[in-house]
Amino acid sequence: MPTEPTVIRRADYTPPDYRVDRIDLHVDIRDGETIVTATLAVVGNPDRAANAPLVLDGQDQTLIYLKMDGEDVPPCRYVVQPERMVVEEVPDRALLEIRTRIHPEKNTALEGLYKSGSMYCTQCEAEGFRRIAYFIDRPDNMALFTTTIEADKASCPVLLSNGNPVGEGDLPDGRHWAKWEDPFRKPAYLFALVAGQLAPVKDSFVTASGRTVDLRIYVEPGNEDKCGHAMESLKKSMRWDEEVFGLEYDLDIFMIVAVGDFNMGAMENKGLNVFNAKYVLAKPDTATDTDYQLIEGIIAHEYFHNWTGNRVTCRDWFQLSLKEGLTVFRDQEFSADMNARSVKRIQDVRGLRAAQFPEDAGPMAHPVRPDSYIEINNFYTATVYEKGAEVVRMYHTLLGAEGFRKGMDLYFQRHDGQAVTCEDFCVAMEDANGVDLTQFRRWYEQAGTPHVTARGHYDAAAKTYTLTIEQTVPPTPGQPEKQPALLPMAMGLVGSVSKADLPLQLDGENAAQGTDRVLRVTETRQSFTFVGVEEAPIPSLFRGFSAPVKLEAGYSADDLTFLMANDSDEFNRWEAGQALARRLMLDMVAARSAGREMAVADSFVDAFRRVLTDEGVDPAFRAQALALPSEGDLGESMATIDVDGIHAAREHLRRVLAERLKPEMTTIYHAMAVRGVQLDGPAIGKRALRNLLLGYLAGLDADGLALAEAQFQSAQVMTDSVAALVCLGDSTDAAGDRALAAFHERWRGNALVMDKWFSIQAMSKRPDTLSRVKALMGDPAFSLKNPNKVRSLLGAFAAGNPTGFHAADGAGYRFIADQVIALDSMNPQVASRLFSPFARWRRFDAARQALLKAEIERVLAAPGLSKDVYEIASKSLAG
Ligand code: B3K
Ligand code: ZN
């Protein structure tokens, strides 16, 4: 960076001096250049200073002319800077006409208007609209948009934008136009435009009030047969939002466009969602069960934004979690209702621990509502999304489903059509329920994952049980001191003899209040005394993960085994198993580093066997319970992450379990076979368990590898094919390369399936993975310009292959840093994501720290570095 980039602060928010009330856009798409004519109806804010100029955001555009109220504006009255245009002497009301030239063909950042294959599309969140037209590009400017698109009819037969279609026609020279009008005010980040050769898949939906909405999914011709699941997911989402929140869709048409080049998953543009094709296209032979679930969840997420994000939007980008945390919570609940609730919760918590907990403990740690940023695109984080969703879930836990719904209703009643803050949401929840959530607000203010310890004491004579809870919120960058958080603690007491949940009566209460209740933990140290406790209990705390904390409850291995078997809360049964496995593996890591043997207790193998063979338990749940905590999860529990020790311990435990339970695993593997192509919940659960067991068996011996090879050859669905290929790809046996070659041969024409082929190799446990990844960059299917390819090969290696990325000689670090530098000049957002694993450099041993730090410094010194990568690099070194 030649100059230090500006830090944007939440405290500096001021309302804009002007707003754009209406914008009429004319986008003339030509080969090699696009001419944009924007007519802006500008209104001055009565409170502005007398001489306040009109400042319009704009970037990478060439100005052709600027007119105000029909007259050319003389050059002395305006100046064009690299990131804005400043116009002086603008009256209270003015009509500006601005014509500019842009080059979507050259746009490799994939922000603004760009080309994906032969199609033109847009991505405007967070600040992409300023690359299309000069505008007040901030979310509190909600304007009415009309858009006319003009293009060559043969190469761009389909022309789409937000809202409803209001006209179309032919023009001379084989060109045509279409006009769209969006009746709802929106910020520019929700603008979208698509032009290209696209095939529509059509359906419709009748809303609760009886209106028929046209549904369209636009894909590249040839992919129409892969849209069924996305369309079903959309219709289910529309119904669910009506039923659960009383929210109906509001336009006559809802469109989704699938594109091949996209920086993230999808985008909720009003009436015209643009999706990464990965989250739309699916057929059983090309997409895995996980892909199906992700598609359902992401289609729902973007659809739900229509109310939480679009109708009510954010005042400024610090409030991002207002729409993202809330919408993630809504999509999680939707998926839980559509599938198995507790399995969904387990998956979400796994995700939170894998991504958000490390973020909250590192140099990029920030509150759910951040206080400052350099590049807003760096703040689309696990904290804003996933921890934000946990915060919303805590309102739901504290207020109950009904109270939460009352709060939502009031929020929409008050704020429909407005750009608001997280505070406004909290106040709506308070007012609708008549409660005071002052302390709860700390969840928005304080970064860091609270550490909670719990200790219990049973007094057999007095029949009382006293539970003492202590919490600390660790210091994070810029926040050395923390206040206690309000923790909703869903809990029960499981009788050690009866194995049943005991009645819960707190000292001072007249009667027991059920066997499962939510306690409010508000102090740094707080005790709860239960009376009438007839037998010694084992406490089951934070049931369903009712607060995003790290809990240390002082359980013995016997307590954990007991809870695994007897807790009525399915989540906590899973949690107990994870805690037991985590503890065992950490002991093994310690033994290894002390030069002792890594021992696996028989009791652990027995507990594992009991879950494995319990036919009364749903296979989907068993698959979750038998999957060991990841290497990343274990690393989180260590002061200094012992990369090699963790890998060795986990692999050793996997082998021991497979060795000791080979007969049971093999029998169940065969018993879980699913005939033909079935995509229902039970079939998905069986495949999950079967493929988990395949992983154990294939890592053990030649028999297991042969099972994998046989499964690979006979697989009828992509889930089974990929699961087998993962096992084969980990092995250095010739069978591995044979399978990879066969997969390549069959699928090289399908970009999304090739992404899987890249990822499997990037995450392979083979010792030569780095050199294979380097070679794969030369594969004709790979391109640094396509974000999916970068993520599936380079991202998978950096974030999903701990031993490869953290190789002791630093070769993995050097390689990824080289790619970050190469990518940064093309696509800063993708470069910055790829770079993120470096931020955790202080967590490793001294030798790795030095290697990582040297790479961060090298990246920081690269000429012309983007703000995106600069922010991660500089904060990593400082924090
Ligand atoms: N709102 C978009 C994400 C935009 C990311 C910009 N860097 C997708 C979503 O969360 O639904
Ligand atoms: Zn979202």
UniProtKB/TrEMBL annotation:
Q: What are the residue boundaries of the Peptidase M1 membrane alanine aminopeptidase domain, all occurrences included? A: 230-443
Instruction: Give its E.C. classification number.
Output: 3.4.11.2
Cofactors (names): Zn(2+)
Q: Does the keyword Protease apply?
A: yes
Domain named Aminopeptidase N-like N-terminal: residues: 97-190
Peptidase M1 alanyl aminopeptidase Ig-like fold domain: residues covered: 448-552
Enumerate the Pfam families for this protein: DUF3458 (PF11940), DUF3458_C (PF17432), Peptidase_M1 (PF01433), Peptidase_M1_N (PF17900)
UniProt keyword terms in alphabetical order: Aminopeptidase, Hydrolase, Metal-binding, Metalloprotease, Protease, Zinc
Segments forming domain Peptidase M1 alanyl aminopeptidase C-terminal = 558-878
Which GO molecular function entries does the Swiss-Prot or TrEMBL record give? Answer: alanyl aminopeptidase activity; metallopeptidase activity; zinc ion binding
Among PANTHER family, the record links this protein to:
PUROMYCIN-SENSITIVE AMINOPEPTIDASE
Q: What does the UniProt record say this protein does?
A: Aminopeptidase N is involved in the degradation of intracellular peptides generated by protein breakdown during normal growth as well as in response to nutrient starvation.
- The protein depicted here goes by the name Aminopeptidase N
Identify the species of origin. Oceanibaculum pacificum
